[in-house]
Give the backbone structure.
Amino acid sequence: QFSAQQSDRTSSSMQSREKTVLTLIYPRKPAERQVLLGLKKRGFGAGKLNGFGGKLEAGETLEESAVRELREECGLQATCADLHWRGCLTYIYDTKPKAMEVNVFDLDNWEGNEVETEEMA
C-alpha cells in the first residue's frame, strides 16, 4: 500500500538526485492506428521494443535532440515543428546513480523510410 510517507521520501529522493535528460519520440500514423517502434540492439533496454531517443547533447534543445536521435536511430527526417511534446517522465532505479528525465514526443509527419541502424532494428 502506498502512503503519504512513501510519497514524501520519493519526492525528496528525486529532488536530491542528479538526472540525465533524455528524449523519446514515437512516430505515429493516427489514421491507421500505427506507431513505429524499434528493437533496441544494445545498451539500456537491449532486446526490447521502444520508441527512438537518447541523451540531450550540450547546446541542444529537447526538440533538436529528438530530431537528431530519430535520424540516427531509424533514418527518418523530421523538423522540430513536426514534434508534439506529450510529457515528462522521471525514472529512478536503485542500480543507476542518476534519475532519468524522459521527455516524450510524438509526430505524424516525417520524410524518408525507416532503416536498421547499429542501435535499432
